[in-house]
Design brief:
By secondary structure, the protein is α/β, with parallel strands linked by helices. It has 2 domains: about 10-145 and about 285-345, 4-Layer Sandwich (Metallo-beta-lactamase, Chain A); about 155-280, 3-Layer(aba) Sandwich (Rossmann fold). About 25% of the residues lie in helices and about 25% in strands. The chain has helices at about 60-65, 155-170, 185-190, 200-215, 250, 270-275, 290-295, 310-320, 340-345; strands spanning about 10-15, 15-20, 25, 35, 55, 75, 80-85, 85-95, 100-105, 110-115, 135-140, 175, 200, 220-225, 235-240, 255-260, 280, 300-310, 325. It has a 7-stranded mixed sheet with strand order 7-8-9-10-11-18-19, covered by helices on one side. β1 and β2 form a beta hairpin. The two termini are about 30 Å apart.
Length: about 350
Protein backbone atom coordinates (compact mmCIF):
# COMPACT_ATOMS: atom_id res chain seq x y z
CA UNK A 1 0.00 0.00 0.00
CA UNK A 2 1.19 3.51 -0.78
CA UNK A 3 0.38 7.05 0.23
CA UNK A 4 -1.80 8.66 -2.44
CA UNK A 5 -1.96 12.24 -1.20
CA UNK A 6 0.65 13.79 -3.52
CA UNK A 7 -0.19 11.89 -6.70
CA UNK A 8 -2.62 12.63 -9.48
CA UNK A 9 -5.68 10.51 -8.66
CA UNK A 10 -5.64 7.17 -10.44
CA UNK A 11 -9.36 7.53 -11.19
CA UNK A 12 -11.19 10.79 -11.77
CA UNK A 13 -14.72 11.79 -12.75
CA UNK A 14 -15.44 13.66 -15.96
CA UNK A 15 -18.66 14.14 -17.89
CA UNK A 16 -18.40 10.64 -19.33
CA UNK A 17 -18.05 9.05 -15.90
CA UNK A 18 -15.28 7.43 -13.85
CA UNK A 19 -12.08 7.51 -15.87
CA UNK A 20 -8.56 6.08 -15.61
CA UNK A 21 -6.31 8.36 -17.66
CA UNK A 22 -3.25 6.12 -17.31
CA UNK A 23 -5.15 3.08 -18.57
CA UNK A 24 -7.40 4.96 -21.01
CA UNK A 25 -10.61 3.28 -19.86
CA UNK A 26 -13.84 4.06 -18.05
CA UNK A 27 -15.68 2.13 -15.37
CA UNK A 28 -19.47 2.08 -15.91
CA UNK A 29 -19.38 5.14 -18.21
CA UNK A 30 -22.44 7.34 -18.58
CA UNK A 31 -21.92 7.75 -22.33
CA UNK A 32 -20.50 5.75 -25.21
CA UNK A 33 -16.68 5.57 -24.92
CA UNK A 34 -13.83 3.62 -26.48
CA UNK A 35 -13.20 1.23 -23.57
CA UNK A 36 -15.69 0.46 -20.84
CA UNK A 37 -15.24 -1.87 -17.87
CA UNK A 38 -18.67 -2.87 -16.59
CA UNK A 39 -19.41 -3.80 -12.99
CA UNK A 40 -22.82 -5.39 -13.73
CA UNK A 41 -25.74 -5.49 -16.11
CA UNK A 42 -28.19 -2.99 -14.60
CA UNK A 43 -29.01 -0.22 -17.06
CA UNK A 44 -27.60 2.59 -14.90
CA UNK A 45 -24.19 0.88 -15.05
CA UNK A 46 -24.18 -0.71 -18.52
CA UNK A 47 -25.05 1.67 -21.34
CA UNK A 48 -25.01 0.97 -25.09
CA UNK A 49 -22.74 2.34 -27.80
CA UNK A 50 -19.19 1.87 -26.48
CA UNK A 51 -16.58 0.40 -28.84
CA UNK A 52 -15.32 -2.22 -26.36
CA UNK A 53 -16.61 -3.69 -23.11
CA UNK A 54 -14.90 -5.77 -20.44
CA UNK A 55 -16.95 -7.79 -17.94
CA UNK A 56 -17.00 -11.03 -16.00
CA UNK A 57 -18.02 -14.14 -18.01
CA UNK A 58 -21.33 -14.48 -16.16
CA UNK A 59 -22.19 -10.84 -16.79
CA UNK A 60 -21.61 -11.07 -20.56
CA UNK A 61 -24.88 -12.89 -21.46
CA UNK A 62 -26.82 -10.26 -19.51
CA UNK A 63 -25.00 -7.47 -21.34
CA UNK A 64 -25.73 -9.08 -24.71
CA UNK A 65 -29.41 -9.34 -23.81
CA UNK A 66 -29.50 -5.67 -22.88
CA UNK A 67 -26.92 -4.07 -25.21
CA UNK A 68 -27.44 -6.28 -28.24
CA UNK A 69 -26.13 -9.64 -29.41
CA UNK A 70 -23.28 -8.03 -31.38
CA UNK A 71 -21.99 -5.82 -28.54
CA UNK A 72 -18.15 -6.06 -28.50
CA UNK A 73 -17.69 -7.75 -25.11
CA UNK A 74 -14.44 -9.23 -23.81
CA UNK A 75 -14.52 -11.25 -20.60
CA UNK A 76 -11.98 -11.96 -17.89
CA UNK A 77 -12.33 -14.53 -15.14
CA UNK A 78 -12.66 -13.30 -11.58
CA UNK A 79 -9.21 -12.79 -10.08
CA UNK A 80 -7.33 -12.79 -13.37
CA UNK A 81 -5.38 -9.68 -14.40
CA UNK A 82 -5.46 -7.81 -17.68
CA UNK A 83 -3.08 -4.95 -18.42
CA UNK A 84 -4.34 -1.80 -20.12
CA UNK A 85 -1.63 0.66 -21.11
CA UNK A 86 0.46 -0.41 -18.13
CA UNK A 87 -2.43 -0.44 -15.64
CA UNK A 88 -3.31 -3.80 -14.07
CA UNK A 89 -7.05 -4.50 -13.84
CA UNK A 90 -8.83 -7.44 -12.23
CA UNK A 91 -12.46 -8.22 -11.45
CA UNK A 92 -13.68 -9.65 -8.14
CA UNK A 93 -17.18 -10.82 -7.14
CA UNK A 94 -19.45 -8.11 -5.74
CA UNK A 95 -22.41 -10.27 -4.68
CA UNK A 96 -24.95 -7.77 -6.08
CA UNK A 97 -26.43 -9.83 -8.93
CA UNK A 98 -25.17 -12.56 -11.25
CA UNK A 99 -21.82 -11.54 -12.77
CA UNK A 100 -21.47 -8.36 -10.69
CA UNK A 101 -17.86 -7.32 -10.11
CA UNK A 102 -15.68 -5.01 -8.10
CA UNK A 103 -12.95 -3.48 -10.24
CA UNK A 104 -9.40 -3.52 -8.84
CA UNK A 105 -7.05 -1.05 -10.53
CA UNK A 106 -3.30 -1.03 -9.81
CA UNK A 107 -0.69 1.35 -11.19
CA UNK A 108 2.84 2.04 -9.91
CA UNK A 109 2.14 0.33 -6.61
CA UNK A 110 -1.13 2.18 -5.94
CA UNK A 111 -4.36 0.15 -5.68
CA UNK A 112 -7.91 1.41 -6.07
CA UNK A 113 -11.05 -0.71 -5.83
CA UNK A 114 -14.40 0.34 -7.29
CA UNK A 115 -17.11 -1.72 -5.63
CA UNK A 116 -19.95 -1.04 -8.03
CA UNK A 117 -23.17 -2.14 -6.33
CA UNK A 118 -22.62 -4.94 -3.83
CA UNK A 119 -23.93 -6.95 -0.91
CA UNK A 120 -22.26 -9.36 1.49
CA UNK A 121 -25.27 -11.56 2.31
CA UNK A 122 -25.32 -15.13 0.98
CA UNK A 123 -27.28 -15.45 -2.27
CA UNK A 124 -27.45 -18.64 -4.31
CA UNK A 125 -28.26 -16.73 -7.51
CA UNK A 126 -24.90 -14.97 -7.78
CA UNK A 127 -21.22 -15.20 -6.87
CA UNK A 128 -20.39 -14.37 -3.24
CA UNK A 129 -18.81 -11.02 -2.35
CA UNK A 130 -15.02 -11.05 -2.02
CA UNK A 131 -13.17 -8.59 0.20
CA UNK A 132 -10.38 -6.85 -1.73
CA UNK A 133 -7.56 -4.86 -0.14
CA UNK A 134 -6.73 -1.41 -1.49
CA UNK A 135 -5.38 2.08 -0.83
CA UNK A 136 -8.49 3.92 -2.05
CA UNK A 137 -11.97 2.41 -1.93
CA UNK A 138 -14.70 3.82 -4.18
CA UNK A 139 -17.85 2.49 -2.57
CA UNK A 140 -21.55 2.84 -3.21
CA UNK A 141 -23.64 3.87 -0.21
CA UNK A 142 -27.23 3.53 -1.41
CA UNK A 143 -28.26 2.69 2.15
CA UNK A 144 -25.45 4.53 3.88
CA UNK A 145 -27.26 5.52 7.06
CA UNK A 146 -27.25 3.71 10.43
CA UNK A 147 -31.02 3.20 10.24
CA UNK A 148 -30.59 0.67 7.44
CA UNK A 149 -29.97 -2.76 8.98
CA UNK A 150 -31.29 -5.79 7.13
CA UNK A 151 -33.26 -8.52 8.92
CA UNK A 152 -32.28 -12.19 8.68
CA UNK A 153 -32.97 -13.15 5.01
CA UNK A 154 -34.36 -16.55 6.01
CA UNK A 155 -36.96 -14.86 8.22
CA UNK A 156 -38.00 -12.55 5.38
CA UNK A 157 -38.27 -15.52 2.99
CA UNK A 158 -40.52 -17.32 5.46
CA UNK A 159 -42.68 -14.19 5.78
CA UNK A 160 -43.07 -13.95 2.00
CA UNK A 161 -44.11 -17.58 1.70
CA UNK A 162 -46.57 -17.24 4.58
CA UNK A 163 -48.08 -14.13 2.97
CA UNK A 164 -48.49 -16.07 -0.29
CA UNK A 165 -50.00 -19.07 1.50
CA UNK A 166 -52.48 -16.88 3.38
CA UNK A 167 -53.51 -15.08 0.19
CA UNK A 168 -54.00 -18.40 -1.59
CA UNK A 169 -56.31 -19.63 1.16
CA UNK A 170 -58.30 -16.38 0.94
CA UNK A 171 -58.68 -16.63 -2.85
CA UNK A 172 -56.45 -13.58 -3.46
CA UNK A 173 -53.64 -13.56 -6.04
CA UNK A 174 -50.23 -12.58 -4.63
CA UNK A 175 -48.26 -10.03 -6.69
CA UNK A 176 -44.64 -9.58 -5.61
CA UNK A 177 -42.80 -6.54 -7.00
CA UNK A 178 -39.05 -6.73 -7.56
CA UNK A 179 -36.58 -5.49 -10.19
CA UNK A 180 -36.52 -7.83 -13.18
CA UNK A 181 -32.76 -8.48 -13.06
CA UNK A 182 -31.25 -9.84 -9.86
CA UNK A 183 -33.92 -9.03 -7.27
CA UNK A 184 -36.61 -11.08 -9.00
CA UNK A 185 -34.39 -14.15 -9.33
CA UNK A 186 -33.34 -13.91 -5.68
CA UNK A 187 -36.99 -13.72 -4.64
CA UNK A 188 -37.96 -16.66 -6.87
CA UNK A 189 -35.14 -18.80 -5.43
CA UNK A 190 -36.70 -18.37 -1.99
CA UNK A 191 -40.30 -19.15 -2.95
CA UNK A 192 -41.85 -22.45 -1.86
CA UNK A 193 -43.17 -24.15 -5.04
CA UNK A 194 -45.36 -26.48 -2.97
CA UNK A 195 -47.69 -23.52 -2.33
CA UNK A 196 -48.51 -23.08 -6.02
CA UNK A 197 -47.24 -22.04 -9.46
CA UNK A 198 -44.84 -19.11 -9.94
CA UNK A 199 -45.82 -16.73 -12.75
CA UNK A 200 -43.42 -14.10 -14.05
CA UNK A 201 -43.64 -10.92 -16.08
CA UNK A 202 -41.94 -11.49 -19.50
CA UNK A 203 -39.06 -9.15 -18.52
CA UNK A 204 -38.44 -11.29 -15.43
CA UNK A 205 -38.74 -14.54 -17.39
CA UNK A 206 -36.10 -13.42 -19.90
CA UNK A 207 -33.66 -12.90 -17.06
CA UNK A 208 -34.73 -16.20 -15.45
CA UNK A 209 -33.65 -18.02 -18.58
CA UNK A 210 -30.20 -16.40 -18.48
CA UNK A 211 -29.81 -17.41 -14.85
CA UNK A 212 -30.92 -20.98 -15.62
CA UNK A 213 -28.37 -21.26 -18.42
CA UNK A 214 -25.65 -20.51 -15.87
CA UNK A 215 -27.03 -22.88 -13.24
CA UNK A 216 -28.14 -20.10 -10.90
CA UNK A 217 -31.91 -20.71 -10.85
CA UNK A 218 -33.67 -24.06 -10.41
CA UNK A 219 -37.26 -23.00 -9.77
CA UNK A 220 -39.84 -23.66 -12.46
CA UNK A 221 -41.58 -20.46 -13.57
CA UNK A 222 -44.30 -19.60 -16.10
CA UNK A 223 -44.37 -16.60 -18.43
CA UNK A 224 -47.52 -14.77 -17.35
CA UNK A 225 -48.29 -13.43 -20.82
CA UNK A 226 -48.33 -16.94 -22.32
CA UNK A 227 -49.79 -18.82 -19.37
CA UNK A 228 -52.83 -21.04 -19.81
CA UNK A 229 -55.77 -19.84 -17.73
CA UNK A 230 -55.77 -21.83 -14.47
CA UNK A 231 -58.85 -22.75 -12.47
CA UNK A 232 -57.67 -20.35 -9.73
CA UNK A 233 -55.11 -17.61 -10.31
CA UNK A 234 -54.98 -17.16 -6.55
CA UNK A 235 -53.13 -20.46 -6.15
CA UNK A 236 -50.08 -18.84 -7.72
CA UNK A 237 -47.80 -15.88 -7.16
CA UNK A 238 -46.85 -13.29 -9.78
CA UNK A 239 -43.31 -11.86 -9.74
CA UNK A 240 -43.10 -8.62 -11.68
CA UNK A 241 -41.21 -5.29 -11.73
CA UNK A 242 -44.51 -3.39 -11.86
CA UNK A 243 -48.25 -3.79 -12.31
CA UNK A 244 -49.11 -2.43 -15.78
CA UNK A 245 -52.67 -1.14 -15.64
CA UNK A 246 -53.36 -1.87 -19.31
CA UNK A 247 -52.03 -5.44 -19.33
CA UNK A 248 -54.66 -8.08 -20.20
CA UNK A 249 -52.62 -10.64 -18.26
CA UNK A 250 -52.91 -8.65 -15.04
CA UNK A 251 -56.52 -7.65 -15.52
CA UNK A 252 -57.60 -11.30 -15.41
CA UNK A 253 -55.94 -12.06 -12.05
CA UNK A 254 -58.99 -11.10 -10.00
CA UNK A 255 -58.52 -9.83 -6.43
CA UNK A 256 -54.83 -9.20 -5.68
CA UNK A 257 -52.54 -8.42 -2.78
CA UNK A 258 -49.46 -6.46 -3.83
CA UNK A 259 -46.15 -6.57 -1.94
CA UNK A 260 -42.94 -4.66 -2.67
CA UNK A 261 -39.52 -6.18 -1.92
CA UNK A 262 -36.81 -3.57 -1.36
CA UNK A 263 -34.39 -2.20 1.18
CA UNK A 264 -36.52 0.95 1.18
CA UNK A 265 -39.24 -1.06 2.92
CA UNK A 266 -37.19 -0.71 6.11
CA UNK A 267 -38.78 2.75 6.39
CA UNK A 268 -42.52 2.73 7.05
CA UNK A 269 -43.16 5.98 5.19
CA UNK A 270 -41.65 4.41 2.07
CA UNK A 271 -44.15 1.55 2.32
CA UNK A 272 -47.02 4.02 2.34
CA UNK A 273 -45.55 5.91 -0.63
CA UNK A 274 -45.41 2.74 -2.69
CA UNK A 275 -49.09 2.07 -2.06
CA UNK A 276 -48.54 -1.66 -1.63
CA UNK A 277 -50.35 -3.94 0.81
CA UNK A 278 -47.12 -5.35 2.22
CA UNK A 279 -43.45 -4.47 2.24
CA UNK A 280 -40.61 -6.96 2.57
CA UNK A 281 -37.09 -5.79 3.38
CA UNK A 282 -34.97 -7.44 0.69
CA UNK A 283 -32.00 -5.53 -0.73
CA UNK A 284 -29.19 -6.34 -3.12
CA UNK A 285 -27.08 -3.57 -1.56
CA UNK A 286 -25.11 -3.52 1.69
CA UNK A 287 -26.75 -2.21 4.83
CA UNK A 288 -24.94 0.12 7.25
CA UNK A 289 -23.13 -2.52 9.36
CA UNK A 290 -21.89 -4.39 6.27
CA UNK A 291 -20.82 -1.16 4.58
CA UNK A 292 -18.64 -0.18 7.54
CA UNK A 293 -17.28 -3.72 7.82
CA UNK A 294 -16.24 -3.75 4.15
CA UNK A 295 -14.56 -0.35 4.45
CA UNK A 296 -12.58 -1.48 7.48
CA UNK A 297 -11.77 -4.84 5.91
CA UNK A 298 -10.34 -3.23 2.77
CA UNK A 299 -7.44 -1.69 4.71
CA UNK A 300 -7.90 1.50 2.71
CA UNK A 301 -6.50 4.86 3.76
CA UNK A 302 -9.18 6.77 1.89
CA UNK A 303 -12.82 6.30 0.88
CA UNK A 304 -14.62 7.96 -2.01
CA UNK A 305 -18.38 7.52 -1.65
CA UNK A 306 -20.93 7.48 -4.46
CA UNK A 307 -24.55 6.60 -5.23
CA UNK A 308 -26.42 7.37 -2.03
CA UNK A 309 -25.91 9.10 1.29
CA UNK A 310 -22.40 10.20 0.38
CA UNK A 311 -22.01 13.23 2.64
CA UNK A 312 -23.53 11.52 5.66
CA UNK A 313 -21.26 8.50 5.27
CA UNK A 314 -18.17 10.65 4.69
CA UNK A 315 -18.92 12.78 7.74
CA UNK A 316 -19.19 9.65 9.90
CA UNK A 317 -15.97 8.16 8.49
CA UNK A 318 -13.98 11.36 8.92
CA UNK A 319 -15.21 11.67 12.51
CA UNK A 320 -14.14 8.08 13.14
CA UNK A 321 -10.62 8.23 11.71
CA UNK A 322 -10.98 7.34 8.00
CA UNK A 323 -10.34 9.98 5.35
CA UNK A 324 -13.42 10.19 3.12
CA UNK A 325 -15.04 12.43 0.53
CA UNK A 326 -17.84 12.17 -2.04
CA UNK A 327 -16.53 10.82 -5.34
CA UNK A 328 -17.89 13.87 -7.16
CA UNK A 329 -15.29 16.01 -5.35
CA UNK A 330 -12.68 13.95 -7.22
CA UNK A 331 -13.99 15.29 -10.52
CA UNK A 332 -11.67 16.85 -13.05
CA UNK A 333 -12.09 20.62 -12.97
CA UNK A 334 -13.52 22.01 -16.20
CA UNK A 335 -13.46 18.48 -17.61
CA UNK A 336 -14.62 18.03 -21.14
CA UNK A 337 -16.40 15.13 -22.74
CA UNK A 338 -13.83 12.69 -24.10
CA UNK A 339 -15.31 11.38 -27.31
CA UNK A 340 -14.86 7.90 -28.70
CA UNK A 341 -12.61 9.13 -31.52
CA UNK A 342 -10.42 11.23 -29.22
CA UNK A 343 -9.95 8.39 -26.80
CA UNK A 344 -9.33 5.74 -29.46
CA UNK A 345 -6.59 7.85 -31.00
CA UNK A 346 -4.74 8.34 -27.69
Amino acid sequence: MVTTESRQPLLTVNRNGLYCDAGRFYIDPQRAVARAIITHGHSDHARPGSKAYLSSPSCAPILRERLGKTAPIQTVEFGETVVMNGVSVSLHPAGHILGSAQIRVEYRGEVWVVTGDYKTEADSTCEAFEQVMCDTLVTECTFGLPIYRWPDPSVVTDDINQWWRTNRDRGVTSVLLGYSLGKAQRLIAGLDPSIGPIYCHPAVERMNNLYREQGRLDAETIDLENAAVPSRWSDGIVVTPNVPADSPAFSRLGPTSVAFASGWMAIRSRRRQRGSDRGFVVSDHVDWPSLIEVIKGSGCSRVLATHGYTRQLCRWLNENGTSAAPLEENAERDSKIVTIDEEASA
